[in-house]
Q: What sequence folds into this?
């Protein structure tokens, strides 16, 4: 008898992943990878580095074309956390490789795109732990990585991510406030939360158009965070009772971006408003794109709205 016939699906989380009785995991999207190298369209160079040999944590570094600039010129450092519901995509996927090439060229920053472990093989907090290890590695000013050591200004570090990656940005900022980065000259200047994967126990007005969408979020969250209390978990609802105060965020600038047709947009708006009320002494900006859905800029990166969003993000990283 065909062994596959007995290998039934035990967890089905379309459009992301299926898990079979045998333990086999089938990712349905986000599995393709691109090699690092020189991007002829932008002039951005990239390479892969091993951050932690014990956990095999890796990252992809990006450096813009600095020809013609002084050899001692320092540029901001961007630590980027990709999206994908903590389940799909990697730092090496075409979606994120191409986006980071474009962003690094537009903003003139050196970027570190973190390839954290994913669920279900590694449920949360594995992604948080890897993301924190990568941030601490950057803050240590690794001398073996010339792009960071010679070009990176650790006094101007930005944390950015989309969807699940934006959720990670928030968690990393809280951890940096509590534990410190360990690098004496390292300073987080700003946070960029793009279409953040935040939700809550109380349904939002923006969810009413598709009640099945909320059910999908609940199932996905239980899948990546076994044993969770639900959508009142502070790891997905930073505004729930008992969640750490936003006043502690260790930076002075935050940009939250949302999209009009994204069911998560209301929570992104609420995050920005709560930040302003919290006593945090900084500037919180909101960028909303009309007529678009979740991470539209990654799906149609050459559209007028995606290009406008790219320029707005680049301006945030340079202002």
A:
């Amino acid at each position: 008898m065909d062994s596959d016939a007995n290998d039934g699906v035990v967890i089905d989380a379309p459009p992301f992943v299926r898990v079979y009785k045998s333990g086999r995991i089938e990712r349905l999207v986000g599995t393709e990878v691109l090699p690092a190298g020189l991007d002829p369209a932008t002039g951005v160079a990239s390479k892969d580095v091993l951050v932690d040999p014990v956990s095999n944590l890796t990252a992809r570094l990006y450096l813009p074309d600095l020809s013609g600039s002084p050899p001692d010129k320092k540029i901001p450092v961007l630590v980027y956390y990709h999206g994908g519901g903590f389940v799909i995509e990697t730092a090496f996927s075409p979606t994120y490789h191409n986006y980071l090439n474009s962003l690094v060229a537009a903003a003139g920053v050196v970027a570190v795109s973190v390839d954290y472990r994913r669920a279900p093989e590694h449920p949360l907090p594995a992604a948080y732990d890897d993301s924190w290890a990568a941030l601490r590695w950057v803050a240590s000013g690794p001398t073996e990585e010339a792009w960071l050591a010679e070009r990176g200004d650790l006094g101007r570090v930005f944390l950015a991510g989309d969807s699940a990656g934006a959720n990670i940005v928030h968690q990393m900022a809280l951890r940096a406030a509590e534990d410190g980065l360990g690098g004496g000259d390292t300073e987080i200047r700003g946070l960029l939360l793009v279409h953040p994967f935040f939700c809550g126990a109380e349904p939002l007005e923006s969810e009413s158009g598709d009640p099945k969408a909320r059910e999908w979020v609940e199932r996905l969250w239980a899948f990546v965070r076994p044993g969770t209390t639900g959508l009142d978990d502070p790891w997905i609802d930073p505004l729930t009772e008992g969640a750490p105060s936003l006043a502690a965020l260790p930076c002075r600038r935050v940009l939250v971006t949302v999209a009009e047709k994204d069911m998560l947009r209301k929570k992104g708006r609420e995050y920005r408003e709560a930040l302003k009320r919290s006593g945090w002494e900084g500037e919180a900006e909101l960028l909303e794109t009309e007529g678009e859905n979740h991470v539209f800029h990654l799906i149609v990166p050459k559209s007028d709205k995606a290009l406008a969003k790219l320029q707005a993000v680049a301006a945030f990283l340079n202002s």
User: Anything to note?
Assistant: The radius of gyration is 19 Å. Residues 63 and 110 are 5 Å apart (CA to CA). Helices lie at 94-107, 126-139, 146-151, 164-179, 211-224, 265-277, 296-299, 304-318.
